[in-house]
Structures are given as structure tokens and as C-alpha cells.
Amino acid sequence: MDEYSENGFDDFRRAMVEHQIVARGISDNRVIDAMLDIPRHRFVPAELIDSAYDDTPLPIGNEQTISQPYIVAFMTELLELHPNYTVLEIGTGSGYQSAVLSKIVKKVYSVERISVLAEKAQKIHRELGYNNIEILVRDGWIGLEEFAPYDGIIVTAAASNVPHDLIKQLNAGAHLVIPIGEIYQRLWRYTITDNGYIKEPSIGVRFVPLLTGID
Ligand code: SAH
Fold first, then answer.
1. Ligand 1: which of 75, 112, 139, 155 to mutate, most ligand atoms within 8 Å of CB?
2. Which of 122, 135, 202, 211 could cross-link with 187 by S-S, CB 3.0 to 4.6 Å?
3. For residue range 131-177, what is the model confidence (pLDDT) as tens digits?
4. What is the CATH number of the domain that holds 55?
5. Catalytic residue set
6. Rg of the chain over CA atoms, in angstroms?
């Protein structure tokens, strides 16, 4: 960490937001401010710290990845978040996406099936003082019934089809943002209506698979 002052990271972070996020059309100031604020370098393995603000996903161990910054921004913007919201993330991974959400909304629940990743993420959140995030080791296919309903759900692993329990755990008007497909996926946004849901296709993406069961 000696090579870089925290100011050095601030410069990388500002450049990331300017070139990868704003220049590509993300305009929700809540998303932009959150990503300017959060030290992404704390969420990547020490040996990859030089790449923390690069325009790419990175490995975080256990065959999992932290998503590309633009994809985090894009999916967060699709959720149309408000400060009083409670949201659920499926797939905590590094804990970066949940940190971004935590800056925007009142409460974040995040479920992860690999307990070592959940523990690492929780430790970083505690160190950074992000106290409105609760991480649970669960199988996200069934959502998180005990704290439902949510004002938004984001799935950060690729599902073969939409998990219907997630639809049931959302308030009317709320969005579910989820990659669906096999090796290459499409991002979909489901919006809950009074008598069901509507779904809209979005961009092509590549995520690790949403697996079944706890590791
Ligand atoms: N949002 C993360 C990136 C997620 S990578 C970040 O910001 O870093 C996808 C994560 O989903 C992995 O950590 C993987 O273990 C987890 N995952 C896969 N299937 C799951 C399931 N059924 N329930 C909960 N987590 C799951």
C-alpha cells in the first residue's frame, strides 16, 4: 500500500468513473457518487490491487469474480433506487456491489453461497463502516423470504431461468435485474405490476453461474 497514497487511488477512481461510467451514459448521480466514494481497491485480492480500477472483471478466489465497474453501475442504475429502499443482492462475491447499493439505499441484504467470501466481504464492510449491509450464507435461488418484501433485487450470477421466489419477494413497482442464459447471458429487468410482472431485455453480459446449494 506504500506505493500509492490514498490520493493516488482517488485519482484512479475518478478516472474510472469519468471514462468507464459517465462517458458510457450512466447518469444517475446516486450511482456515480457511490462509485466515486467506494474504495474498490479494498475489494480485490492484494496482488491485483494495481488493476482495481481497470475496465474489467477480476478474479476474487473460489473461482468467482468482482464484476466490471461499468456493469455494476449499469445494473444499479436499472434498479431505479431511492434512499428509503431495502434491496436484496444474490451473490455477494467481493462485497463491492453491495457496498455501492449501501451508499444509495437504507438497507441491503446480500446472500452468498460460499461462506469464506461472505466472511471476507463482511469484514471489509465493517472496516469501512458500511453498517447497513447484512450478508447471509444462503442459496439465492430461493431469495430471502425472512426480510421480504424488497424494493429491488439484483442477481449478480447467471441464472438459467428466472427464480420465481424472487418475483414473489418484491413490492409492486420494484425491479428485479438478472442475467439469464448459459455461457453468454442477457440482462433482464422484471418490474412487478398489480397483476404480475413485465420483463424488458437489456444488454448482453457474462457472469459466473448461479449455482444451487451452499458450499
Ligand atoms: N456482486 C459480486 C460479484 C458476484 S460473483 C461483487 O460485487 O463482487 C457471483 C457470486 O454469486 C459468487 O460469489 C458466487 O459464489 C455467488 N453465487 C452463485 N450461486 C449462488 C447462489 N445460488 N446463492 C448465493 N450466491 C451464489
1. 112
2. 202
3. 999 999 999 999 999 999 999 999 999 999 999 999 999 999 999 99
4. 3.40.50.150
5. 67
6. 16
